[in-house]
Amino acid sequence: MNVIKIGSFLSLGIIFALTGNGVNALPGQRTDQVAAWINGHPTLRPGIGDGLVVRKSDTAGERFTFQATVLPPGTISYPKDRSTIRSERIAIHDQVNGVTIERLEESLRTVYGPEIYRDYNSAQFVYTYPSPEILELSRRQNLPLWSAEQGQLLLGEQYGYWIEITQNDSGRAFIGQLTVFLKEDLGKLETELRAR
Predict the structure, then answer these.
(1) What are the residue boundaries of the structural domains of the chain, listed by start?
(2) DSSP secondary structure string, 73-129?
(3) Stated pTM of the model
(4) What would the pLDDT profile of 168-187 be if each residue is shown by its tens digit?
């Protein structure tokens, strides 16, 4: 009887560890709350002194970074409030397996859970780059760098999302990022991306 209770308790603990850790820290929350959430997150598992930035590396060619910041996404600007997180970025660099949009989306689901993943999946497209015209011009003039960065800017009910991969000359992406940010920063980021 005790063995069953202990086994059930362990199974429940494993389920909570795999599916639990509901989102407690997102853009708009205080830096100390986000730092505590990062510290207790089973997937992020920061090292000593990592704070708001977590870096993981299996090999020199495989890196994962999670960064929460008081700055809005895009070009650096002076923060309005130094105690409130405005954006959180997941970045993957993988020379071995490459990086895909799907892999970045799976990282979003793993880090933030199903609620934010649903918000991302139901988000409306705001801007996609490069435009079809730039892709065609890049192909015709043999200028692959014009189409190397491919990304999307989306607006969900709760947050804005910016996803981007950078491809090499052969069309394979080894670098990608997905940023969750406050909706009020959408205009700034969209303007910057359209001006590239």
Answers:
(1) 25-194
(2) SSS----S-TTB--EEEEEEEETTT---HHHHHHHHHHHH-HHHHHHHHTPEEEEEE
(3) 0.84
(4) 878 899 999 999 999 999 99
